[in-house]
Amino acid sequence: MAVPPTPQVFIAEPSVKSLWIELRVNGHALSTGTGFLAIAPRGPVLITNRHNVTGRHQQTEQPLAANGGIPTEVAIIHNRAGQLGHWVLRVEPLQGRARQPLWVEHPVLGATADFVALPLTQLTDVELRPYTLGVGDPDIVIAPGEVVSVVGFPFGMTASGGLAIWATGFVATDPDINYANLPQFLIDCRSRQGQSGSAVIAYRTGGAITTRQGISLGGGTMTRFLGIYSGRVNPESDLGFVWKASALQNLVASIV
Q: What's the pLDDT tens digit per position in 70-85?
């Protein structure tokens, strides 16, 4: 009897680019979140929200954990080198000597920006699948009402193993205009705890309108990185903040 062929499994690349993270204090879990990789001049970095690594509310500075704990390390589920669909857990310190933060903040915005880059040191058996933070991406038209995806880990859940879960939303403010005079725009998406630090992308499988060299119709799967999700404007709203790719580019370029 002939053995039936093994069916091919399709995994969308953004599903493995978003990384599950757990914020810990001396080995004890405080919360979960999301991050993703980029390559700085110094080397690979984890991009995530500032409030994830500080363990404090971005505006009030109050501790986020019910027990008041502040994270000292972050556990990251990375892709295992050479084995797509397999993962490896690595732990990175968040504090150095005298409890100095090891992450890097935006060179101009500093603590105002709810995103940071953490240089990575524990990369044995890790396969890097970084974002270029929009550099070289297709110029998919992004305007109010356009569909976007928040790719992360709501409530610490995964789709399977280390695969991310996709939430669908819509652009809510003109992305070329800075919301609240900061490099961010709003989306309308039913996001939840754990998705802080998620990559926000425009992902099109059936073609998309692009703007490179005039307006044209692009075919096949296309992905444009738009920024990092950092939470809702308030608990009663589905409107959420996205810090723009250009601001992330500035941060990563500063890490030399």
A: 999 999 999 999 998 9
Distances (CA, A) of 112 to 96, 109, 178, 203, 234: 22, 5, 14, 29, 18
* CA 253 to centroid of chain Cα atoms: 17
DSSP structure string for 96-134: -GGG-B-SB-BTTTBTTSS-EEEE----TTEEP----TT
Q: Where are the beta strands (DSSP E) in 16-120?
A: 18-25, 28-40, 43-48, 73-80, 87-93, 116-119
Give yes or no for residue 216 having a pLDDT over 50: no
Q: How many helical (H) and strand (E) elements, i.e. helices and strands, does the chain have?
A: 3, 15
As a whole number of angstroms, the distance between CA 141 and CA 187 comes to: 15
Instruction: List pLDDT tens digits, range 30-58.
Output: 999 999 999 999 999 999 999 999 999 99
Give the chain's domains with CATH numbers.
13-127 (2.40.10), 147-245 (2.40.10.10)
